[in-house]
Write a structure and sequence with these properties.
Largest sheet: 5 strands, antiparallel
CATH architecture of the domain at 255-403: 2-Layer Sandwich
Order of helices and strands: HHEEHEEEHHEHHEEHEEHHEE
CATH superfamily of the domain at 255-403: Histidine kinase-like ATPase, C-terminal domain
Number of helices: 10
Radius of gyration: 40 Å
Strand order of the largest sheet: 2-1-5-4-3
EC number: 2.7.13.3
Keywords: Kinase, Membrane, Phosphoprotein, Transferase, Transmembrane, Transmembrane helix, Two-component regulatory system
Structural class: alpha+beta
Pfam families: HATPase_c, HisKA
Organism: Acetobacterium wieringae
Number of strands: 12
Main location: membrane
CATH class of the domain at 255-403: Alpha Beta
Length: about 400
Amino acid sequence: MIRKLKRRLVATIMIILSLVFVLIIGSINYFNYQSSERQSIALLSALADNDGVIPPATPGTPGAANPLPPDIFEREKTYSVKVNAATNLFTVNGSSDTSLVSQEVLDLANQMLEKNRSSGALNGYRYLVVDKPYGQLLVFVDQRISNAMADRLLTTSLIIGSITLLVLFFVSLFLANLMVKPVADAFEKQKRFISDASHELKTPLSVISVNADVLAGDIGTNRHLGYIQSETDRMNTLVNDLLTLARLDADKTLGVTSTFDLSQAIKSIALSFESIAFEAHKNYALEIEDGITYQGDANQIKQVAAILIDNAIKHTNDDGQIELTLKRIGDKIHLEVFNTGAGIPYDQRDKIFERFYRYDESRSKATGGYGLGLAIAKAIVCEHQGKIKVSSEVGRWARFSVIL
């Protein structure tokens, strides 16, 4: 439980930090892109307004409070092409030597005209097409360097963000250990108290039980003595369950493990409940596949089967059906206990595996349950690296499935 809490805490911290970093990195790169776009639009608009010639004064960025830097045209490569539709003549101007790139510029101009759009981006250039009395004016700015810088900014920010998240992951592990430590200490004290209290209760209960049996032999049947014996048996059951849970919590690995005949083990424990089911007026059926072997603690697996069968008998209606099935599906072993009856509401299906939880208080009191059986079964199954789950239709049936 503590390990699961720690994992959830670290996962929550990392998800929040990842979302924050994505938001920060995305915002930085988005605003950088928008700033570059606004600057390019301002340059193109200025060139178009000045008939393709660099204006004497630097224009301001549309929607911006501050004008562009004075030397912006010296730093950015801009070109303009005048197109005379009648004679199909091109005139090329630029902020740099156009003799070296005139053919490339003319090819770009032809591609822009073919697109038949007033503005856009093409091969790393942002362009603007404006109608003039002599034909059309095409102005464009070379964005290849700024695009490369934007890509480098994105790559750098992603690398820095990933490294930072990795460092913060180890920091969050350290913080999670600090935060979980008080909970772990409290849980450890609780386990120790349950174990110690159970051991301390076991001796006086044994004394009471033995003396009650001696009195029964001396005085014969007595109603009050019967109450003492009945409640003593119930308390012994509770103490034994508490000791089992304490032992499962304390042991990090399986106890005595061996390869055993699971089919025979389940059959032997299931047959011991046959007479109990008959006396309780329940229909009891077994479907056990022969020859299934399993490596684990045989006694603990048999205890799981006993808990599920006992639970089914207690919650099956009169003349209801109880079915136990054991079979191998692929490389997994499936143990299922089905019973008709009231079923289990959907919102209770996870809670029934909690300690001391009883979704039907009146029925649990009548059957003498403390709400520990299913908690013990789940602890044993988890210790064997298996899964236990429940499915049900309220008012009709319930099925517990163990997958090993």
